[in-house]
Amino acid sequence: MNNLCADIGYMSLNHVGEELCGDRVDVVEENDNSFVIVLADGLGSGVKANILSTLTSKMLSTMLSQGIPVEDCVETVAATLPICSVRKVAYSTFTIIHIINNEEAELIQYDNPAVILLRNGKNYEYPSTETVVGGKKIYRSRIKLMENDIFIAMSDGCIHAGVGMSLNFGWERKDIIEFMETIADVGYTAKTLSTMLLEECNRLYENKPGDDTTVCTVRIRKRCPMNLLFGPPSNRADGDRMMSLFFAKEGKHIVCGGTTSTIAAKYLGKTLKPQLLSPDPEIPPIAELEGVDLVTEGVITINKVLEYARDYLADNHSYTHWSFKRDGASLIARLLFEEATDINFFVGRAINPAHQNPDLPINFSIKMQLVTGLSECLTKMGKRVKVIYF
After folding, report:
1. What does the domain layout of the chain look like in residue ranges?
2. What is the edge-to-edge ordering of all strands in the sheet holding 225-230?
3. pLDDT tens-digit profile, the chain (390 residues)
């Protein structure tokens, strides 16, 4: 088994005037190292297209993750869903990316724009074979994975971007490849890469998409562990045990909370050096402690990180804020969202007397809710999350 993992991120634009998107992405985890990712593009737009793409993606992802041969999956979908009585064309097109043990990718493509593979930052023309399943031409590929491989799947809304507006013939695949090659080596997450491509499509559409547009990016990267300590233990006697377990873990270490950082400094025998000012007046200043990668305030900072995490899973609009700012919340967001693949939370259950003032909006239950909410968001991002309470 290698030390690779798949970072998966996707975004969609709705056809102008439509509340529902006619494209759908489904991700099913077979095990810790294998995933089935399906991008389906329903015929037309609106409610009908949304239903068709949802059924297609759900059926294909579920059946394939259960080990059913692709031929049977496609034939079942074709027999189950209707063909347009007017146009006599398919109910839905689809792209399947099957990540197998983080060692190999199987691509199964039907009528969507061909998946782009960037390897070492440049376009890589992978081999494919054509087969006919249920009267449909299916293209299949098997690709051995390498670190930093980037797979970009898209609906045809991407290549239609700008037709009759800024471009005569739309945004051709070679142009999309050229655009993505310029940002491939920067180290962006899969979600951010999808966001940037989709924003460019929206710009070409002049903010009025003439088709549902979806991008799904899969970035192959090495695992990167991260450890976050939040709050002192409920039993003071457990302090040294908590610290020894925390600092014994591989990867970077983040300490959140004033009391917590004081305990960590005492355990390490180092001096805690608080900064007097924060780049963001709403976020308390960070501190420096030798042996710790980042020291921040606790509840207020983590609450802001949770806001960023929820936005990241939605429209990712806050990326322009936390991606470059130097306050504690932004620094944690970059470490957890962009760098980390495996995250260990060490959470102390001690009740801070300062938080028990009824005039303050902070209490113990809110602290626990922050941990639960953030760990759920990180899990949805595809991170491996473990929470240990003391």
Report:
1. 4-222, 225-389
2. 273-274, 287-288, 294-296, 252-256, 225-230, 342-347, 384-389
3. 578 999 999 999 999 999 999 999 999 999 878 999 999 999 888 898 999 999 999 999 999 999 999 889 988 887 777 666 655 555 789 999 999 999 999 999 999 999 999 999 999 999 999 998 877 889 999 999 999 999 999 999 999 887 766 565 668 899 999 999 999 988 899 999 999 999 999 999 999 999 999 999 999 999 999 999 999 998 888 989 999 999 999 999 999 999 999 999 999 999 999 998 999 999 999 999 999 999 999 999 999 999 999 999 988 889 888 999 999 999 999 999 999 999 999 999 887 655 545 554 455 578 889 999 999 999 999 999 999 999
> Which fold is adopted by the domain 4-222?
Phosphatase 2c; domain 1 (3.60.40)
CB 263 within 8 Å of CB 257: no
| DSSP per-residue codes, 288-353 | E-TT-SEEE-SHHHHHHHHHHHHHHHTT-TTHHHHTT--SHHHHHHIIIIII-SEEEEEE--PPPG
The C-alpha atoms of residue 176 and residue 240 are separated, in whole angstroms, by: 53
Cα(198)–Cα(194) distance, integer angstroms: 6
